[in-house]
């Protein structure tokens, strides 16, 4: 059983222990933009890291995949935090028709 948070959540809890499928299906447009931004911002670093013309292409691919993974992790953290009531979750609460009263 996962450990509980030390402090109670500030916002309404939708899922106390959300599964991966619930977290990924809760990705918002902003979360998708995190993934896109991290991926596209990492490509120039891969180009600059490539020492020769022969290495620049593979270095850009590796950097893009690294950025994709970083963006996915950031989006996952925000999505899971909204479901657990750690981050503001007004959209999720409204979509599910829950009360917007914060937990005391």
Which features does this protein show?
membrane, mainly alpha, NADH-Q_oxidrdct_subunit, transmembrane, transmembrane helix, NADH-ubiquinone oxidoreductase 21kDa subunit N-terminal domain-containing protein, 4 helices, elongated
Overview of the molecule:
InterPro entries: NADH-Q_oxidrdct_subunit, NADH-UbQ_OxRdtase_su21_N. Keywords: Membrane, Transmembrane, Transmembrane helix. The chain crosses the membrane at residues 59-78. This is NADH-ubiquinone oxidoreductase 21kDa subunit N-terminal domain-containing protein. Residues 9-87 form the NADH-ubiquinone oxidoreductase 21kDa subunit N-terminal domain. The chain has 104 residues and is mostly helical. The protein has a domain at 27-96. Helix content is 63%, strand content 0%. Helix 2 (29-49) packs antiparallel against helix 3 (53-84). The protein starts with 19 loop residues before the first helix and ends in an 8-residue tail after the last helix. The mean pLDDT is 89.
């Amino acid at each position: 059983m996962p450990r509980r948070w030390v402090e109670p959540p500030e916002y309404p809890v939708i899922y106390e222990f959300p599964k991966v499928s619930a977290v990924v299906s809760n990705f918002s447009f902003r979360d998708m933009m995190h993934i896109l931004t991290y991926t596209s911002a990492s490509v120039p670093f891969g180009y600059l890291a490539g020492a020769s013309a022969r290495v620049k292409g593979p270095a850009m691919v590796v950097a893009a995949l690294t950025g994709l993974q970083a963006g996915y992790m950031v989006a996952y953290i925000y999505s899971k935090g909204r479901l657990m009531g750690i981050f503001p979750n007004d959209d999720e609460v409204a979509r599910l028709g829950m009360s917007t009263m914060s937990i005391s």
